[in-house]
Amino acid sequence: MSYITLALAKGRTAKSTITLLENTGIQFKDFHEDSRKLVFYDSDKTIKVVFVKAVDVPTYVEKGAADIGIVGKDNILESQADVYEMLDLKLGKCKFVVAGKIGSTLEKKQKLTIASKYPTIAKKFFQKINQPIETVKLNGSVELAPLIGLADYIVDIVETGNTINENGLTILEEIEDISTRLIVNKASFATKSDNIRQFINRLKSVLE
Ligand code: PRP
Ligand code: MG
C-alpha cells in the first residue's frame, strides 16, 4: 500500500492542523497532544505523519523526505524552498512586521541593525525600501533586542500583539500577512499525483 508522507510543524498549529485533517475523515488514533512520538500513521495507513520543527518543514518537502508539508508562510518564505504552494489553510493567521521601541519611528540611516528569526525576509523588506541593514540572527525572544541595544529594530511575527505590547515595542511597518499553507514536493506531485490531489481536494472541501 502506498502512502504519502506529510511533514507537520510541531508547536502552536499542530493541534488545529490535526483537527482539520480529522474533519476530512482521516483518523489519527495514535495522535495525542502530549505524546513525544514523531511518526505516526492514520487509521487507513494512507498518510504517514512526521512531526518536525516548523522551520525544517520546507526542507523536508524540498528534499523529498516528505511529499507534503503543512507549515506557516513565514517559514516557507524564509527558507526560499523550491516547492509548490497549493493551499492556504487559513490557520495561524498573523503578520510579519517591523517593530521598535514605543515612541520610535522607522528612521533611515547609513546602516540599520535588524534582529530577527527571519533574516532573509528582513533583508528583502529593507532592500525594497533601499535601506542597507546588518542582520542579527536570533532564535527567539527577539523582542528583547531593541530593549538591550542589540538592534535598532526587529522583524518578527505578531499574532495577538501581546508580546510586543508587554515589552514596550510597537509596530512600525507591516510587511506581509501570514497563515498556514500546504506545500508539495515537485517530484512527488508528478509521481503521486492522484493521492496528492485527492488529499488536497478533501482539505479544500472542509475549508469551504
Ligand atoms: C512568536 C513571535 C512573537 C510572538 C507573537 O514567538 O516570534 O514573539 O510569537 O505572538 P503574539 O503577538 O500573540 O504575542 P514565540 O512564542 O514562538 O517564541 P520565540 O520567538 O521565543 O520562539
Ligand atoms: Mg517570539
Automatic annotation (TrEMBL):
GO terms for molecular function: ATP binding; ATP phosphoribosyltransferase activity. Keywords: Amino-acid biosynthesis, ATP-binding, Cytoplasm, Glycosyltransferase, Histidine biosynthesis, Nucleotide-binding, Transferase. The keyword Transferase applies. It holds the Pfam family HisG. GO terms for biological process: L-histidine biosynthetic process. Pathway: Amino-acid biosynthesis; L-histidine biosynthesis; L-histidine from 5-phospho-alpha-D-ribose 1-diphosphate: step 1/9. Residues 53-204 form the ATP phosphoribosyltransferase catalytic domain. It is found in: Cytoplasm. It catalyses: 1-(5-phospho-beta-D-ribosyl)-ATP + diphosphate = 5-phospho-alpha-D-ribose 1-diphosphate + ATP. Transmembrane segments: none annotated. Lacks the C-terminal regulatory region which is replaced by HisZ. Catalyzes the condensation of ATP and 5-phosphoribose 1-diphosphate to form N'-(5'-phosphoribosyl)-ATP (PR-ATP). Has a crucial role in the pathway because the rate of histidine biosynthesis seems to be controlled primarily by regulation of HisG enzymatic activity. Belongs to the ATP phosphoribosyltransferase family. Short subfamily. Heteromultimer composed of HisG and HisZ subunits. This is ATP phosphoribosyltransferase. It comes from Virgibacillus profundi.
